[in-house]
């Protein structure tokens, strides 16, 4: 495993909502399930830099990434994924949460995320209180190979609200925290 790989994430630290023990155990279970489903020989470890996914993933946390190998149809809403920055040719990675799936129409309006006109109940995932700071996001209709992603730290996340849909070809794999940093 390569422990020196680093993610280029832009974020600001905030307080954790759950105990460290619960988060660690939850992520170990996700990792174990991922390894059982997708095999363990391809898993790589990356270090998170920044706080785009704060409080879920903190600066310095180690992430296990299981490659999707083109299996984008298996990605589900709220999955954490690692992907290449879609706005540059530089090798820069981001980790974010999937909100919109292929074929869906996504809108971010009045502190709500609407999928095909229906409000998502994301209260257990992340608070959307800060999303209104950006005003009303123009809706986007995702094609058959695209996803809508946002960081959990909505006040400081450069994501699909700014650069649009994320293509399947940019997605590296599923991400989960395996060790807390700092």
From TrEMBL:
<feature type="domain" description="Peptidase S26">
    <location>
        <begin position="28"/>
        <end position="178"/>
    </location>
</feature>
<protein>
    <recommendedName>
        <fullName>Signal peptidase I</fullName>
        <ecNumber>3.4.21.89</ecNumber>
    </recommendedName>
</protein>
<dbReference type="InterPro" id="IPR000223">
    <property type="entry name" value="Pept_S26A_signal_pept_1"/>
</dbReference>
<comment type="similarity">
    <text>Belongs to the peptidase S26 family.</text>
</comment>
<keyword id="KW-0645">Protease</keyword>
<dbReference type="Pfam" id="PF10502">
    <property type="entry name" value="Peptidase_S26"/>
</dbReference>
<dbReference type="InterPro" id="IPR019758">
    <property type="entry name" value="Pept_S26A_signal_pept_1_CS"/>
</dbReference>
<dbReference type="InterPro" id="IPR036286">
    <property type="entry name" value="LexA/Signal_pep-like_sf"/>
</dbReference>
<dbReference type="InterPro" id="IPR019533">
    <property type="entry name" value="Peptidase_S26"/>
</dbReference>
<keyword id="KW-0378">Hydrolase</keyword>
<dbReference type="GO" id="GO:0009003">
    <property type="term" value="F:signal peptidase activity"/>
</dbReference>
């Amino acid at each position: 495993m390569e422990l020196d790989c680093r993610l280029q994430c832009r974020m600001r630290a905030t307080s954790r909502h759950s105990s460290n023990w619960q988060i660690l155990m939850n992520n170990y279970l996700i990792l174990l399930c991922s390894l059982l489903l997708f095999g363990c020989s391809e898993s790589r470890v990356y270090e998170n830099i920044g706080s785009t996914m704060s409080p879920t993933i903190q600066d310095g946390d180690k992430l296990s990434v299981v490659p999707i190998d083109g299996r984008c149809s298996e990605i589900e809403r709220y999955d954490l994924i690692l992907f290449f920055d879609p706005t540059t040719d530089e090798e820069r990675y981001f980790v974010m949460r999937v909100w919109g799936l292929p074929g869906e129409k996504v809108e971010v309006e009045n502190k709500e995320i609407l999928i095909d006109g229906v409000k998502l109940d994301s209260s257990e995932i992340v608070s959307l209180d800060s999303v209104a700071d950006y005003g009303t996001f123009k809706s986007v209709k995702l094609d058959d190979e695209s996803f809508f992603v946002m960081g959990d730290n909505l006040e400081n996340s450069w994501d699909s609200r700014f650069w649009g849909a994320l293509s399947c070809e940019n997605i590296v794999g599923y991400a989960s925290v395996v060790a807390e940093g700092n």
